[in-house]
Amino acid sequence: MIRRLFPHPALAVLLFLVWILLANTLAAGTIVMALLIGVIVPLITAPYWRDKPLLHIGWPLLGYIGLVIWDIVVANFQVARLILFRRNRDLNSCWLVIPLDIRRPEAITTLAGTISLTPGTVSADVSADGHALLVHALDAADPAAEVARIKSRYEDRLKRIFR
Amino acid sequence: MNGAADIIIAFLILLGGGFALIGSWGLVRLPSLMTRLHGPTKATTLGVGGVLVASMIYFPVYHRQYTAHELLITLFLFISAPITANMIAKAHLHRQGMGIDPNPADDIQEGLPESEIWATFRVKQGEDDDRQGVPPAGPPAG
User: Fold this and answer.
1) How far is CA B135 from CA A54, A128, B5, in A?
2) The whole model's pTM is what?
3) How far is A150 from chain B (nearest CA, A)?
């Protein structure tokens, strides 16, 4: 019964919180509306979430978010330095192919988004069978090392979050 | 109290503005579309992030208003920025792969690894592509 009413509990909680934050009040009407949205939207969209529980909310997830924010700040300075002080012909921009061990679409999407947000790399495409990610790097002197860094730094952590 | 807050707010706004400017400058000077794509995706993360954190300090200190809208803006940016970059990259790959209006400076075909396996170039999806029930990550192929 509970399972039927809440097919996707994490999504329900997220929608509830986002609605409260949007309204920016804790009035009774807002909470009722947030509850309604948190219950109804997952029910309507349930057919699109094929594999049920996917996200493990806990320390690995929080640690991952912190790591990504830290990497964004650090790497922004690196890219700013590249843009300001590196001549175009000295840029080692290249394509990277990242073979994927993770198979869940949600995990691959998260990895692709992380790669795009951390400066210096933009994810461009996924292979048709979903087993490799095409990434463009602004400046990678050693492409193999960059691929290994992305795999060990992000993908290994995502494996623990999406199971 | 307000003096210290002023300094932090001014620093954060300058930092955010600086990074937005550098991102735009990268858009001007980098040589090809794929490298130019790095500029704007970066300006949104730290450039906008700096301004948003400044706003989160300014309103509680000066107006006693506590809002969480900055957090939501951050959330929406973090969702929309990679998708936008991904769509631009895919459209670019597609145009290059099909030879539509090729720009010599953007010649990605040389150096693009294993160009036949990517979802963008897979014009017709075979039966066996979906055998594991894994759709392509991100937005659907254009």
Assistant:
1) 16, 9, 48
2) 0.75
3) 16
Residue A67 dihedral angles phi and psi, to the nearest 5°: -60, -45
Token pair listed for B17: 């503005």
- The ranges of chain A annotated as CATH 3.30.70 are 59-161
Contact between chains at B38 and A103 (C-beta distance less than 8 A): no
CB contact under 8 A, A129 and B117: yes
| 3-state percent helix, strand, coil for chain B, nearest multiple of 5 | 70, 0, 30
**Tens-place pLDDT, residues B81-91:** 888 888 888 88
> What does the domain layout of chain B look like in residue ranges?
2-125
CATH architecture of A59-161: 2-Layer Sandwich (3.30)
Question: Per residue in B98-122, pLDDT tens?
Answer: 666 666 555 554 456 666 666 666 6
> What DSSP character marks residue B110?
T
ipTM associated with this complex: 0.74
